[in-house]
């Protein structure tokens, strides 16, 4: 892979890895026995590995091919493999935490294996490890194809991808050591947060520079979604993670916000992480890969523009529905509820747009499991956004909040929508990137589809039942006006659902393992097929192309 | 910066901002003469994509 | 008809639509558009919370966490207790009947970060303080199922053998002061000694603690061990103060008559 980098680029990579290695050493020296010190050594190991890899090929000959005639897909390829690796780790952790709730002694007699510490490994593993890598990798793919231009840079995509994975490793290993800010989905401590800001700025610049090179007059709508994902996540991340470290030699920090302000900031972040990480980015994926796979243009491009701005504008207000009936002022709760309900319009516009695109191609959906992944993802997107708007209504929320219903809702979105659209896109793009005829085994794709679907359905139904049951038990009164059930009574009632949930999760995990196996076997064994290349592009664009930035 | 001021801005300006934005976007999306370009954009990804345009 | 009505403004709309089209051909313009659309919502919603007076009530008797309690709070965060226990009683009758007066904003005024939580795999802890004895808490943390057979909580026996690191407490209190908790210089300087004093009754350390944090402060052998101050001491000290920072909720919400 190094052969595609020029000598100067390899030197730049070497310098960056040395700088990272030095900051790792500084962390290790400052932190000593503190988790900060251990993280320092992890950074040293990571940067050292990159350094050695680069050093090994520093004197290789300069690339001979003309790099402008092809897309730069190496970072995409690595990103996809990393995404699948994280999927197996993150979902594996998920099954384990689920099992711990059913059988609490199913753990090691060690602090790191308790529910509280491994649960964020699961959430960050799937959201950032799997989802984030899938987003970064597919965005590299989509931005080049829709712009008909090569990535603007050869070192920066690697910096973004590897830097992001270093962040994920720091995050996951930190949780096991008890390093957490306790802000859900924003747990990593201050130094990891600062690192992510640097990575994210490079990502944004790379995206903008690639778009500036484009040979299409119009920026295709998928890019809008990816761009919104990058931009808004940056703002959310910076604001919610404002904190003062207790000392520069330790991991611990204290949030700049407290109490009700902190709660609002946290759920403004939390809900918009759902909006712009788990929705906008993956809609970008949907708007590119679904039409591409179905070989039909998106049903209504106009609708996609409308729903884009609708989602961008409405979502940001909705966070306070996480705080109904709390000490948050009521007008903020009402505002959050109103916007959450309005959000249904652009959400269903997107889901409907995707499904209408398939109108006339249903035979393909029947025969092609890859397209079916995307179709079911759009259905689950529609379902879980409806459920979300419903649960944001105060009266419903009074029952659902604090129960497993919320957990079920999140997983309907995360498994049914985010994971399925990612798997569909991965199956669509892997043969293309590695220049293979097809996936190694279409039967395994089919198996994966049914495992994932049944796992999701079992999971979601179990959580609906347990959530509604528990919510109702909590508020049941006896005839004499006292509470009918103790907390432990409700806990006993949860047990069968917790077992069912672990089973559903295990099915889903099995599917992810099959996916990883299938992709690896495709790379190693599937017959090659070189796509014919023709230049320049066959685009019918009649307008003059925007002049490239460089 | 009093609370009355900020919440008044939130309640009035926020509303007008929302209305202006949604009208603007709707006009843009349904402007007749832009239809062809949108079709072109929607179809653009289906064209050959084996290499970047030079 | 509609066409006629709109026609005078057609130029305006035409201009707007074309501007948008041009804008989106330039990625930076698109970027600014996204920031404008998304930024305002967050600003409108959050900014007034910082100026609002009613958001946080006045509670003159509101007290601060002692160094030992703050250390316990840090352990609570470290172990991820917030993933299963909320600290926010909603204004719903069954919650008030089950857990006590509903939570007020002022109660988490000094909580950096807040630990309101989002899921009750276990019960709410906002008012768990002094509901159970120290001994019950310790036994329950060592082996939850020995006390509550149906519990699915993990065991935290290791806390009893982990000596509490009190060296870092002055730094931690100073950082908390930087974000707005009104600790005095004295309280910060003596944080380490005060933490040990709170778990060692009838020592000089305990006297100093009471002098700096008030007579109401709990000074006990929280974990039952007299030889050293453990993480168990800190966590139990924290659990026992939950809901006890101010009397305002109990005063403003008289208990319902049976």
Automatic annotation (TrEMBL), chain A:
Do you know which SUPFAM superfamilies this protein is assigned to?
A: Cytochrome c oxidase subunit I-like
Q: How does it sit in the membrane?
A: Multi-pass membrane protein
Q: Which residues form the Cytochrome oxidase subunit I profile domain?
A: 1-550
**Region of interest called Disordered, as start-end residue ranges on this chain:** 530-550
Question: PROSITE patterns annotated for this entry?
Answer: COX1, COX1_CUB
A molecular function (GO) term: metal ion binding
Task: Give the E.C. number(s).
Answer: 7.1.1.9
Q: What does the entry's cofactor note say about binding and number? A: Binds 1 copper ion per subunit, denoted as copper B. Binds 2 heme groups per subunit, denoted as high- and low-spin.
Which keywords fit this entry according to its UniProt record?
Cell membrane, Copper, Electron transport, Heme, Iron, Membrane, Metal-binding, Respiratory chain, Translocase, Transmembrane, Transmembrane helix, Transport
Instruction: Give the pathway.
Output: Energy metabolism; oxidative phosphorylation
The cofactor required is: Cu(2+); heme b; heme
Pfam families assigned: COX1 (PF00115)
Protein name per UniProt: cytochrome-c oxidase
Q: Which organism is it from?
A: Pseudooceanicola nanhaiensis
What's the encoding gene here? Answer: fixN3
TrEMBL record, chain B:
Keywords of the record, alphabetical order, are: Membrane, Transmembrane, Transmembrane helix
Q: What is the source species?
A: Pseudooceanicola nanhaiensis
InterPro entries in the record: Cbb3-typ_cyt_oxidase_comp
Membrane-spanning parts? 12-31
Name of the protein described by the UniProt record: FixQ3 nitrogen fixation protein
Q: What gene does this protein come from?
A: fixQ3
Q: What is the lineage of its organism?
A: Bacteria, Pseudomonadati, Pseudomonadota, Alphaproteobacteria, Rhodobacterales
Pfam families per the UniProt record, alphabetical: FixQ
Q: Does the keyword Transmembrane helix apply?
A: yes
Automatic annotation (TrEMBL), chain C:
Does this entry carry the keyword Methyltransferase?
no
Q: Which InterPro entries does the entry mention?
A: Cyt_c-like_dom_sf (IPR036909), Cyt_c_oxidase_monohaem-su/FixO (IPR003468)
**SUPFAM superfamilies this protein is in?**
Cytochrome c (SSF46626)
**Keywords from the named record:** Membrane, Transmembrane, Transmembrane helix
- Which molecular function terms from Gene Ontology are attached? electron transfer activity; heme binding
TM helices/strands, residue ranges: 28-50
**Per its record, how is this protein called by name?**
Cytochrome c oxidase, cbb3-type subunit II
Look up and give the organism this protein is from.
Pseudooceanicola nanhaiensis
| Phylogenetic classification of the source organism | Bacteria, Pseudomonadati, Pseudomonadota, Alphaproteobacteria, Rhodobacterales
